[in-house]
Design brief:
binds zinc ion
Length: 256
């Protein structure tokens, strides 16, 4: 399984992209950097886009992908919870801000929406996909994606602490998890449903206790404005606990 990180941050600039991951060039998870960082051919080759929650940094490229596929006479599948679907229909694809590509063009709409529910596994192309609820301010799901050869990745999307229920249900080789804020902003992180280095380490220790191992860990959704502080704090924990953690970055490719 080949995972490509298109966006690893919570804001965008010429250097940073919003969250977006592509697996084996055909499955996209999150839509923060889909159109800005994929060629038109790569956009056309996507078999499915899996959405985690309706926050704008995670859904923003859906309308532009819709237009790109419409002009290319292509269609794709979108997997999302009911709350994401309703939010997209009400705000981004409302026929006013942009066309509702789930109903347009009428003869063959660009997007075919599939409603997913946390805890209910689904098959997409050759992958087993398990959506699981995580702990964010908006209703959010993470996805475990398992390929035909048994390799799997779990992408948490935005989440705060309290992931034991998730850990019990997954066995990933790779964990892509968020760390948005440094430790001195723990209160704000807890309020919004985000992790700081200290909260992350607690979750990883809990994973190790429940599962008896730790997968490769890649951190994303960092705030670039305070990324240095977050990295310094993570570095201290890594030394003390001998945990291997990498920082996600735009353009990063990971093979598992
Ligand atoms: Zn969010
Ligand atoms: Zn976010």
């Amino acid at each position: 399984m080949k995972i490509r990180i298109l966006g690893a941050h919570n804001i965008e600039s010429d250097k940073y992209g919003c969250p977006c991951f592509v697996i084996d060039d055909i499955l996209a998870i999150e839509a923060g950097s889909l159109t800005s960082r994929l060629s038109i051919t790569q956009q056309q080759n996507l078999k499915a886009i899996l959405l985690t929650h309706y926050h704008y940094d995670h859904t923003r490229d859906i309308p532009l992908l819709g237009m790109s596929l419409f002009l290319s006479k292509k269609t794709t599948e979108i997997y999302a919870t009911k709350s994401i679907y309703e939010s997209l229909k009400a705000h981004l694809l409302n026929g006013d801000l942009y066309p509702d590509f789930s109903a347009f063009p009428p003869e063959k709409p660009v997007f075919n929406f599939n409603i997913v529910e946390p805890g209910k596994p689904i098959s997409i192309a050759n992958y087993r996909v398990l959506p699981l609820a995580v702990k964010h301010a908006a209703p959010t799901i993470g996805y475990q994606i398992t390929s035909f050869n048994g390799k799997s990745v779990f992408i948490t999307s935005d989440t705060g602490p309290g992931l034991d229920d998730c850990w019990k249900q997954i066995n990933p080789n790779l964990l892509i998890i968020e760390t948005t804020l440094p430790d001195y902003k723990e209160e704000a992180a807890r309020r919004a449903g985000h992790l700081t280095p200290r909260l992350l380490i607690k979750e990883l220790e809990s994973f190790r206790k429940i599962k008896g191992y730790l997968p490769q860990v890649v951190l994303v959704h960092l705030d670039p404005l305070i990324e240095k502080e977050i990295k310094a704090e993570i570095h201290e924990f890594k030394k003390a606990l001998s945990i291997k953690i990498r920082f996600g970055r735009e353009g990063m490719k990971i093979k598992i």
